[in-house]
Design goal:
Elements lengths: L1 E8 L3 H12 L4 E4 L7 H5 L6 E4 L16 H6 L2 H10 L4 E4 L3 E4 L4 H13 L3 E3 L4 E7 L2 E6 L2 E10 L14 H8 L14 E2 L2 H7 L6 E7 L4 E8 L3 E3 L1 H7 L9 E3 L6 H7 L2 H12 L6 E3 L1
Parallel strand pairs: 1-2, 1-9, 2-6
Antiparallel strand pairs: 3-5, 4-5, 7-8, 8-9, 10-13, 11-12, 11-14, 12-13, 14-15
Helix pairs in contact: 1-5
Bound molecules: flavin-adenine dinucleotide.
Length: 292
């Protein structure tokens, strides 16, 4: 049986960062993951370039039932700390809109940096290891894994959310929380594209690949950014943002000409121009307001 100070379940961004910090504080750390590779989600993040931090971050950017929850964490470790780490590894990066920072080359640079930090902090990474059972006896946790038993004084569950089971997502974290009497709120998707029903999908599929600046809103939030027509429905920053505030069955309104009062514009244009605009906007694929 292996004995250690801390077991971290999940070798994603959260598990690796936690392992680095615990290792630096002198703890013996073992990270367990059932996947064959650490940080698979990091590799696909930011279209393969990983939006690893933002110049501007504040507690208001985090959606939570308790808006104060993230304040202490953000005050103790900021975007500037992470940026300093990235720069110490000479990872080249660039800024995109809203102060978002991406690797110039590949998200692999971020994963390799985290793995190098883990190695430097003496963290043991054990992949291909499924968790079969967890028990707490006296002051130690006892884990039965596919690779044998392990005990630890502390256990960190960093198994991530439910998105993309193909790369390893499971509900294990929620199961462990329930086992230890921790309240689990109903889960829902966030920062996700919308899939349109078949008839709407067919109607808009010729526009697949086209991005348009829009105002997208529901009753509580609105975003002025691009939407992107895809072969399955709608994506792009405005749609990803509103999805976090959307409830199934709720109406989302997309204003395709947010800066324009169409009535006034049409009145002020000559007949010929009106004809063109009507052709492209009203008789074409793009109604001024699209309600889904
Ligand atoms: C397409 C896409 C693009 C994204 N782009 C960005 C971006 O550019 N910037 C950004 O900040 N965020 C981005 N995100 C979000 C970001 O990737 C995640 O928020 C982040 O990776 C979550 O890290 P995590 O460690 O909490 O969870 P995960 O990365 O999901 O890690 C959880 C780990 O736990 C393991 N695990 C799960 N169940 C078990 C089990 N039963 N037994 C053992 N191990 C288990 C998994 O194998 C996995 O390695 C993106 C997400 C997606 C899907």
């Amino acid at each position: 049986m292996t004995e250690t100070d801390v077991v971290i379940i999940g070798a994603g961004a959260s598990g690796l960062m936690c392992a680095i910090e615990a290792g630096k504080r002198g703890r013996q750390v073992v990270v367990l993951d059932h996947a064959n590779k650490a940080g698979k989600k990091i590799l696909m993040s930011g279209g393969g370039r990983c939006n690893f931090t933002n110049y501007s971050i504040n507690p208001g950017n985090f959606i939570s039932n308790n808006p104060h929850f993230c304040k202490s964490a953000l005050s103790r470790y900021s975007q500037w700390d992470f940026l300093a780490l990235v720069e110490s590894y000479r990872i080249s990066y660039h800024e995109r809109d809203h102060g978002r920072l991406f690797c110039n080359d590949s998200a692999k640079d971020i994963l390799n940096m985290l793995l190098a930090e883990c190695a430097g902090a003496g963290v043991v990474l054990q992949l291909n290891t499924g968790i079969e059972n967890i028990e707490k006896l006296a002051d130690r946790f006892h884990l039965k894994t596919g690779q044998g038993a392990i005990t630890a004084r502390s256990i960190v569950v960093a198994t991530g959310g439910l998105s993309i089971p193909k790369i390893g997502a499971t509900p294990l974290g929620y199961k462990i929380a329930r086992q230890f009497g921790i309240n689990v709120l109903p889960t829902r998707a966030g920062l996700t594209p919308f899939t349109l029903p078949p008839d709407e999908k067919d109607k808009f599929s010729p526009l697949s690949g086209i991005a348009v600046p829009c105002m997208v809103c529901n009753k509580r939030q609105s975003f002025n950014e691009n939407i992107l027509f895809t072969h399955r429905g709608l994506s792009g920053p405005a749609v990803l943002q509103i999805s976090s505030y959307w409830r199934a069955g709720e109406e989302v309104v997309i204003d395709l000409l947010p800066q324009v009062d169409l009535d006034t514009e049409l009145k002020s244009l000559r007949r010929k121009k009106i004809k063109n605009i009507l052709k492209t906007i009203l008789d074409g694929y793009l109604p001024k307001r699209l309600i889904i």
